[in-house]
Structures are given as C-alpha cells and as structure tokens.
Specification:
Layout: E1 5-9, H1 27-31, E2 37-40, H2 42-45, H3 50-58, E3 65-69, H4 72-77, H5 84-94, E4 101-107, H6 116-129, E5 134-137, H7 146-154, E6 157-159, E7 161-163, E8 181-184, H8 197-208, E9 217-220, H9 227-241
Parallel strand pairs: 1-2, 1-9, 2-3, 3-4, 4-5, 5-6, 7-8, 8-9
Helix pairs in contact: 5-6, 8-9
Length: about 250
C-alpha cells in the first residue's frame, strides 16, 4: 500500500498506551515519535496565538504535518457568511506552523443545509488568501450533490470520509479528492467506541482504493475513552505490514 498518514485528533496519550511512544520533551514531541500527522481540534473552540503554533511546529520532526480545524465562529455561528475578519485572524495564527501546516478542516453543523452561493463566496474568499489544502466534513444530506461536488472540485476542496456516516456517500471521500481525508469518530458510540480489526481492515481497503494527488490522511477521533491512540497504532501497523497487530481484537463499544 502507498504511504498513508495516520494520526489522531489531538496528541493526548493515555497512560496505558505510553509504551507505544518514544521519549520527548512534551506530550506532542512524544506523540510525534509514533505518528507523523495530528489534527488540532481545540482551534474550533478557542483561538491560539501564532507563537503557540510556532512552538508546536518547533517540537516535531521536519516531516510532521498538522491539520487545523476552522473556528466554530466561521462554520457554526456565521455559517460561512461575512467570515472575512474571522478567517483573516485564523489564517494569521496558523501561519505560525509554517511548512508544517498540512491542511485545514472545515466541519459543518448537521443543521446547515447547502447554500451554493454562500459556500462559493466563502471558498473564493478563502482561496484569495490561501492555497493550503482544505477538507470539508458536511453533515446535512443536501451537501451530497453533484453541484456541491463540482463546487468543491473548482476550489480544490476535499470532502471528508466520516464514520459513523450519516448517509452512505458520507463514508467515502468526495469525487476527485486531491487530499483524501478520513475522520473516524468511533462506532457505534461516537467518540467512545473502539474499532475491531475487521473494521480497520475494511478501512484499509477503502483507503487503498482511493487515489488523490496527496497522501491520504486517516484521523481517529474516538478520544473520549482514549481508544484513538490504540486504533491509530493498530491501523498504522496494518497499512505498513499488510496485517493487523496481533491480539488487538476488541468489541466495538
């Protein structure tokens, strides 16, 4: 299998999984001894200073990459309208990551139906400011439409493949995804459940079947009980060796 970047939403390391990682001066530095990507979700809830992003970038190896979630002010409160000032602030902050900024994540609320005019205006505004890869996780069924696919392709936006998927199309990356991006949140209980070996094997097959211009990312977001780290490590072993790590079969809830 071609290279797949595997990581977690955040870099917290539960004590029971400490042996999976090497030594480091910080939790992030230790996390980066095992994984080469991470998704920053805290930026959704609160801003971080540019200097904070600079410190994070300095604590990881050269090949490490971050994806950063856009603030809820943009996605949930403004719903992409009049978001220029908030977007400028956010982009100014994440520039602190420098070349280690791998991409941005835009997650839309389940109640947000597709509005092609607002989405087009926002994406044009974003692309005037940045050409960084963007992955979007829409959750209203109206976003899974050929017109939206065309809009996303026009602005180089990849649609996230999510689990659990609210509808079948949501389980697969969007057509022509330049940056294939999976977010696995835990199933059947979102954020809490661990994944079985069979589920991870099915994910590996799905990732292998998708082609993009960039290496695919697989992010585990089932962090509530600390399963993300173990699932990411098991999946990493699977894609690197072609077989699951031994003795790691577990129930889904």
């Amino acid at each position: 299998m071609r290279r797949v970047r595997v990581g977690c939403a955040g870099w917290s390391i539960p004590g029971r999984h400490r042996a999976l990682f090497g030594e480091g001066d910080s939790m992030l530095a230790r996390y980066a001894t095992r994984f080469d990507v991470v998704e920053i979700n805290s930026s959704f809830y609160r801003p971080h200073r540019r200097e904070t992003y600079e410190r994070w970038a300095a604590s990881v190896p050269r090949g490490f990459r971050f994806s950063v979630k856009l603030p809820r002010t943009i996605s949930h409160e403004l719903r992409l309208r009049g978001a220029g000032p908030a977007l400028d602030r956010f982009l100014g902050e994440v520039e602190g990551l420098g070349g280690k900024l791998g991409g941005l994540l835009l997650q839309l609320p389940p109640s947000f139906a597709a509005d092609l005019r607002d989405a087009s205006n926002f994406l044009r505004m974003l692309r005037r400011r940045s050409d960084v890869p963007l992955a979007c996780e829409p959750r209203h069924p109206s976003w899974f439409d050929a017109r939206v696919d065309a809009l996303f392709q026009r602005h180089a936006v990849s649609r996230v493949a999510a689990d659990p998927a609210r509808l079948p199309a949501a389980a697969r990356p969007g057509e022509g995804a330049g940056w294939p991006y999976w977010r696995w949140h835990g199933a059947p209980r979102t954020y809490y459940s661990a994944y079985t070996d069979d589920a991870l094997a099915q994910l590996a097959a799905g990732v292998a079947a998708v082609r993009g211009t960039q290496a695919p990312w697989v992010i585990f977001d089932n962090t509530a009980h600390g399963h993300a780290v173990d699932d990411a490590a098991r999946f990493q072993s699977l894609v690197e060796s072609g077989r699951p790590a031994r003795g790691r079969e577990r129930p889904r809830a």
